[in-house]
Specification:
- The protein has 385 residues and is an alpha/beta fold.
- The chain is built from 16 helices and 13 strands.
- The protein folds into two domains: 177 residues, Glycogen Phosphorylase B (Rossmann fold); 193 residues, Glycogen Phosphorylase B (Rossmann fold, 3-Layer(aba) Sandwich), CATH 3.40.50.
- Helix 2 links the parallel strand 2 and strand 3.
- It is globular.
- The two termini are 16 Å apart.
């Protein structure tokens, strides 16, 4: 048997890691997986030492608040790794945490692999020089990254993005709604997905903002249905409290969902999405979207100084253009967000243009021809070496 420790720090990482674990176990059933895992990783066969939501923090000031907990997790994780002595450590995203762990693990003589190249090409480029001290190999989901990493002597493989081949891409939304009887008691009306983020720190900044946006949309579209997928009971509770506080009249029009963001995006006419991997998921599932995000003023000031491009959302970064509207920080108001979503709902040409750009992005992210299991091949080579 071959032991592998795999660590993912949030909902998007849990999804990527589960996809990789499933593929690896199919190729080699002798592999055993342990680590920091979310529900999808556990379902894929990972023994969870620690829940991945424990690491779900974004922003400088937010990390400082959570630092004692993160340090405890780091000590516990390293102690377990030293006891198990696995063949391989796989860090999935969460670079500020995983790259540090990888450096310590590598010093123990354990091979290390990092899955999802940190976006050094967008901000904090100087950190790329330190990647090779942490990871023996890096799996990249964007095709331009291996060439950029080569300048820093970081071996890397483009493996494609799982979202680019997601099932039911472009599925007929009307048929899906009828299938789940979303509007069994009334004619089909507008369906709006609302994705406020998966971290508690994101819900702190987005709950009231997104609820008030929903309230404004409800005033114009009284038969609209809102789908709100959230990963945990805690995040759901925070959002429901904001809903009852700011828009109790909208509650009957809201479907709260445990996870299933992919389904919500397939069904929706448009989506309001907190910036992050979910914006790419919306693009790959062909859902027109408006992107928003708020963080603390201090974090925003520090991040903005280090940005190397004008866009925050992945669809815009990959398109190198304004594919989707971005309303961040002070620009993110209920009025501005509801107006942007309304503009998409009433203008099919805007939705079609966005969809055409989505298709171009999807083509970029499909794994190289002839390498359907590029990630599996890279991991297998590393284990064998």
């Amino acid at each position: 048997m071959t032991d592998v420790v795999i660590v993912a720090g949030e909902t998007s990482g849990d999804q990527l890691a589960a996809h990789l674990v499933t593929a690896l176990r199919a190729a080699d059933p002798s592999l055993r997986f342990y680590g920091v895992a979310g529900p999808k990783m556990r379902a894929a066969g990972v023994e969870a030492w620690i829940d991945s939501q424990s690491l779900a923090v974004r922003g400088y000031t937010e990390v400082l608040t959570a630092l004692p907990r993160i340090l405890r997790i780091k000590r516990d994780l390293l102690a377990r790794i030293e006891s198990l002595k696995p063949t391989l450590y796989i860090g999935v995203d969460a670079p500020d945490f995983n790259l540090r762990i990888e450096r310590s693990v590598k010093a123990l003589g354990i091979k290390t692999l990092h899955y999802v190249c940190p976006s050094f090409w967008a901000w904090r480029e100087a950190r790329a020089a330190k990647f090779s001290a942490s990871a023996d190999h890096m799996l990249c989901v964007f095709p331009f990254e291996p060439e950029l990493l080569a300048k820093y002597q970081m071996p890397a493989t483009f493996v494609g993005h799982p979202l680019a081949t997601a099932p039911l891409v472009g599925a007929d939304r009307v048929s899906l709604r009828k299938k789940i009887e979303l509007h069994a008691d009334e004619p089909l009306a507008e369906v709006i997905a609302v994705l406020p983020g998966s971290r508690m720190s994101e819900l702190k900044y987005h709950s009231a903002l997104f609820v008030l946006t929903m309230k404004r949309l409800h005033e114009k579209y009284p038969r609209a249905r809102f789908l709100v997928p959230l990963p945990t009971r805690e995040t759901r509770q925070v959002f429901e409290e904001a809903l009852w506080q700011h828009a109790p009249d909208v509650v009957p029009r809201v479907n709260m969902m445990f996870g299933h963001a992919d389904f919500a995006l397939r069904v929706a006419d448009v989506a309001l999405v907190a910036s992050g991997t979910a914006t790419l998921e919306a693009a790959m599932l062909d859902c027109p979207q408006v992107v928003s995000y708020r963080i603390s003023a201090l974090t925003y000031f520090m991040v903005k100084r280090k940005l190397r491009m004008p866009w925050a959302s992945l669809p815009n970064v990959l398109a190198k253009d304004w594919c989707v509207p971005e309303l961040l920080q002070k620009a993110a108001t209920p009025a501005a967000l509801s107006d942007a979503l309304d503009a998409l709902l009433v203008d099919p040409k805007k939705r079609e243009a966005m969809s055409a750009t989505y298709a171009q992005i999807r083509a970029q992210l499909v794994a190289p021809a002839g390498e359907p299991s590029a990630a599996v091949a890279a991991v297998t080579r590393l284990i064998a070496r």
